[in-house]
Amino acid sequence: MTGAGVTDEIPWAHTPFEQRWWLEAVAPGQWGETLVERQGKIVARLPWVRRRKLGVTVLTQPPLTRFVGPWIQTGEGKYETRLVAEHELMAELIARLPRFDSYRASLAPAITNWLPFYWAGFDATVRYTYRLDDLSDPDRVWNGLRSNIRNHVRRASRQLEVRTDLGVDEVLTINRKVFARQGLPVSFSDALAHRLDHACRARRARSVLAAVDADGRVHAAWFFVHDATTTYLLFGGGDPELRSSGANSLVVWEAIRRACETSQSFDFLGSMIEPIERFNRAFGARQVPYFFVSRTRPHARLLFGARDAARLARALTDARRRGGEESTPTGEGTSG
User: Fold this and answer.
1) Radius of gyration (C-alpha) of the chain in whole angstroms
2) Distance (Å, rounded) from C-alpha 153 to C-alpha 82?
3) Whose CA is closest to 227, among 267, 170, 168, 169?
4) Band of pLDDT at residue 85, cut at 50, 70 and 90
5) Angle 19-23-26 (CA atoms, 0-180°, nearest 5)?
6) Three-state SS for 64?
């Protein structure tokens, strides 16, 4: 099934990133989904985006889209029975994928079994996000922050105001400054961000928080999305010229504090980059693994190999130049 301008929430998804309305916002007309049905009911689903890169067909995930499933309904019963059903449904999803030369996607953390992908010739790499699992007690969450983060928050709160009335344009302005400072190419367009903002606002599924000083300067601004259970830190950043103010710590803490009132958990959506991992971990978040699965046909592997090696080396080198307070502008690359 290929994508269309659908608006309804669907139950066959672990996160907002797998919703049809999200996919249409970030990859209009380019996404599709593989479905498995039993007796007229959907029991397995795997969304994807089809792209042409270097003359080959790639199934992947869009920008600003951290996870793409798969969603599997295994039913009830003994563990072995449920595992057999999971293997069968996942194998059927894989077999029904459209033809591709390369497949690259991050599975949702809820998926802890990638054996059917392995049996089908895929590779997997373990990656990590960081998550605060229980937001029921804000005081306990605050006490779980590393002492220097609490100090950053206290200091910044004396000179900055956290505002919620700014929009995605202010976040993009800061975000682009961070990309420019790091010498990195922008990984998603302003038009994509505006489409996503519009779709999220229509569903009351996003918030923008910004730390602003008395002169009206925006020190940090971040874009958060949320569903019924979790708030996700999606993209943003801190002004490179104002990094010493502690604004990133203040904005992230304020987002966590607000999430304590509406969400069960808070997900930082990363990171594998060492300075960003250190920043996320300092909020007391738990390391949560997820699988990045891939398969590349031999004729496409040569084309991608040199490109990916150069891109990774450049990204890691640039990331290590950043200080611990500065956060990734996008929550890392998400387009596979």
Assistant:
1) 20
2) 46
3) 267
4) very high
5) 140
6) coil
Distance, in Å, from the CA atom of 167 to the CA atom of 187, rounded to the nearest integer, reads 20
Token pair for residue 151? 């100090």
Token pair belonging to 118: 């392995």
Q: Which distant-in-sequence residues (6+ apart) come within 8 Å of 41 by Cβ?
A: none
Q: For residue range 107-161, list pLDDT tens digits in order.
A: 999 999 999 999 999 999 999 999 999 999 999 999 999 999 999 999 999 999 9
pTM over 0.70: yes
Ordered domains of the chain (ranges, CATH) = 16-130+289-320 (3.40.630), 131-287 (3.40.630.30)
| Contact of 227 with 16, CB cutoff 8 Å | yes
Q: CB under 8 Å to 45, separation ≥6 — which residues?
A: 12, 13, 18, 33, 34, 35, 36, 69, 70, 71, 93
Q: Write phi, then psi, for 74 (nearest 5 degrees).
A: -95, -10
Selected residue with higher pLDDT from 55 and 83: 83
